[in-house]
Amino acid sequence: MDEMVISDSLRVYECIRDLAESLTGTGTLEEKLDRVVTELRRITQADGTSIWLIEGRVLRCIAGKGHYEDTEKGKPIEAKYHLDNDKGLTAWIAKSGKTVNIRSFAELEQHPQWAGKYDDRNYPARDRGGRRCESFIGTPLKIGNTIIGVLKADNRQGESGHPGYFPASEEHLFTILAALIAIVIKNDQIQRTQAEIEARQRIAAIAVHNLENPAIAIRWALENIRDALAQAPPRLDLISRSVEVALDEVDILLEKREAFLLLINPRHSEEYRETDVAEFVERSLTHAKRQAPDVNFGFEGDPRVRQTRLPVAAVSNALSALLANAIDATRGRQDRQITVRLRCEKDFGEDSGADATRAGAARMYFDVEDNGHGVEPRIKDRLFDVGATTKELGAGLGLYACQHLMRSIKGDVMYDPSYRGGARFVIVVPSA
Is the pTM of this model over 0.70? Predict the structure, then answer.
């Protein structure tokens, strides 16, 4: 008898070890739980194993094998019970917090929460000579006194392939495994909640970071208009220039609004607009010149590209962020130089003519080059991470935001480490 107890204990220990390795391995929560129900089905030889999670007042299958699996889709079946209305055994376990180990069909039929209601659903071939549910085990997933779901299995095949029941050793296994699963699920929920909070904070910080310059410029323009109107006669030339500045900055604010929509909602589609590329770049450079009038800005276009369709909001935001960084990188130099260069993929062809990009046939590249101090080696590998900055009061959000934004529309922003000079960043513009 003692040898049997020791043997059962060793088996349970080995099962827990195997299942714990599945739970703590790499991958998403869904992948971990899928490995667990697969391993549990092998260990128990059950027809079906599944994990159910409480979402509000609904109990939903989030991992399942056997008859809980959609073999065509490779996912758990879309099964759920409503805790307020359903009287089934699984929902009863989720509400009562009690473990159930039923060892025969007769015992199952007598259970008030079964009453044969789900036998035909799970085993529809019974009336055609198929099997009925001969055994069932289910235990709640608990965190403290809070029930978050159910772990269950049914129809144990038995060692010889005949119907059997789940022994006491496997009931102990279920109890221990349910505690592990509950902890893993709860930890994943905490991490996801924290990630959502951090994402909201990050987007809010990006909004503040990007709205500062246009707001300052608009305020400056309005102050100029106020002062010009106070003079006698009013300075109409100053009013005119200030109005133009304010209108330009309002356009920039509207583009930033579109960019924030892309950051917040990946399903929001960026609008491609027919654009004169030279005018588009010059507008960004004009805005940059207001911030740094002593910098020599230049633009080198591609003669094949005049009019093209651009994702204006995303590219404009990326370009303004890179120009702002280049301005900071050149501070202290006497000959401050920043150049924007347009390049196109070779598949335009040499004979394609000046209107080759009207159909948005291929990607374009905007290089932003400066003759500043370059990128410090200590920060090269994490340039686009949140918080990566060389500025004394920098938030480390500009490069992260513009890369994230461009990638949301299948483009990119990259650092070119081969550039010999200050620094070169590349905006990759996807085809329309």
Answer: no
